[in-house]
Amino acid sequence: MINKYKWWEYGLIYLGMFTFLAFLLAPFVEAFVVSLRPLDKVFSIPYQFITDDMGFDAYVNMWKNVPLLGRYIFNSLLIATAVMVLGLIVVIPAAYAFARFSFYGSTALLGTFLAVNMVSGAVLIIPLYRVMLKMGLLNTYFAMIAPGVAFVIPTGIWLLRSYLVKIPRELEEAARVDGASRLYTLWRVILPISMPGIAVVAITTFITAYAQQFLFALTFNSRNELNPLPVGLYQFFGREEVVWNELMAASIVGILPVLVVYVLLQRYIISGLTAGAVKE
């Protein structure tokens, strides 16, 4: 096998990867270090990355100072899970229809889905608020779940469609020869084969819904016990000072569920995202 890269080219590649990872991970490393410092040492001059009095006191005190912190994390997980499940219910049949049927306007509709992803939720916040107000859904979980579902559906359809188009049509034709209906074929034949693609849609939807809860929760909910974690973190902002070490500690604890899900299921993300990358 001929090595197409020289040693110095490998060095540049690894240097670029290291630099990219350093910029990517630096905020998380600094957040963790800040969570270990005493509050009076957070902005100490000169700056010290490691100090002698570091500890995990902030991880203990944050539960005392914000008693509902556990509830906020639970609410974030609940909202993200609901968005993921409801999104899959819509995405799976829609992606299958775009992958298997040729109908007038399908290409334009897919382009519209892509354009929707470019629209910020802040642009639609006032119309959404009026809709929620008239439907009596303010201060409920549904007011935070429904907009999240609407915003993750376009991306989910694009991801899953790219996977479904790779599945041979002969499998469906064989099932129809045996008398299977279109719905039965989707349920018994297509879904088991497309589980890696469905998994990547579920994971990316969950992560997106977990990370983008602040705007809708802050606008559509005023009940403290229903707040997700991003809004709950506001309680670490006092009138005179911000408890930065406890804020960073709560943020680290809050991202752990998503980090665990990503680490455990990353192979499905890679296989699902690359399924439609090569055209046979």
What does this protein look like?
It is a single chain. α1 (about 5-35) packs antiparallel against α12 (about 245-275), α2 packs across α12 and α3 (about 70-100) packs parallel to α6. Mean pLDDT is about 85; it is low at about 275-280. It is globular and about 75 Å long. The chain is mainly α. The chain has twelve helices and no strands.
The sequence of SSEs as H and E is HHHHHHHHHHHH
Shape from CA axes? Answer: globular
Please outline the major beta sheet.
none
Computed over alpha carbons, the radius of gyration is: 23 Å
Number of strands: 0
User: Strand portion, in percent?
Assistant: under 5%
Structural class: mainly alpha
Oligomer: single chain
Total of DSSP H or I helical runs spanning 4+ residues: 12
Low-confidence stretches: 276-280
Terminal-residue CA separation: 24 Å
Helix content: over 70%
Mean pLDDT: 84
